[in-house]
Write a structure and sequence with these properties.
elongated; alpha+beta; Arc Repressor Mutant, subunit A; Beta-Lactamase; 2 domains; 5 strands; 45% helix; five-stranded antiparallel β-sheet
Length: 193
């Protein structure tokens, strides 16, 4: 079992914000809690990446209009499917937290249109950044990736820095942690097929 270190809080940083931030960064699933106004009460890092990639609306405080319409007027007993021509599709499952439907937990599940580097484009990366991230997840060093991609080591470092910024992570390990759920999702789909 993975334990999460619990930091001390200062007077200007309430405890609930610390807990939310820890959960957002530690949970590898794409989870979202919203109210019936569409306000985002909680979202994991994976959720924010998927929403930025699949919906043109860019807000960390409210859910995209398509999700809100489905939540308020659609059949939430069935998953909502959102498609992107290059990045596959996502399924959004709704789990009402109250009978009134005023608070909902949503789980977003990415369904890749391809495997490997192409699947990682769903994280909002360019094709080359996705390739670099794929080889990072395979444990390759920058010089090894440079040889594989027929590029310079400096170019690989630049792509790596760009993808870290897009994913909001500081290290190779944390970038790989963002990629693994996407890659594992595709592998489990291939096994079922």
């Amino acid at each position: 079992m993975h334990t999460i270190p619990f930091p001390m809080t200062g007077a200007g940083f309430p405890l609930h914000q610390v807990v939310c931030q820890l959960l957002e960064n530690a949970l590898e699933q794409a989870l979202l809690i919203t109210n019936d106004l569409g306000e985002v009460l909680f979202a994991t890092r994976q959720t924010r990446l998927i929403l930025r990639t699949f919906f043109s609306e860019r807000s960390d405080s409210v859910i995209p209009e398509q999700l809100l319409n489905w939540l308020l007027k659609g059949d939430t007993t069935k998953p909502l499917v959102a498609r992107h021509p290059e990045k596959g599709e996502i399924e959004v499952h709704n789990f009402p937290l109250f009978r009134s439907g005023s608070l909902s937990l949503m789980r977003l599940e990415h369904k890749n249109s391809d495997h490997g580097p192409k699947a990682l484009r769903a994280l909002g990366l360019t094709a080359r950044e996705a390739e670099v991230l794929y080889w990072i997840t395979e444990g390759k060093t920058n010089p090894e990736i440079a040889i594989i991609l027929d590029a310079s080591t400096d170019t690989v470092k630049k792509h790596a820095a760009n993808l870290y910024a897009k994913l909001g992570v500081p290290t190779r390990t944390s970038a790989a942690r963002c990629a693994l759920p996407v890659l594992q999702s595709r592998l489990s789909q291939q096994r079922l097929a």
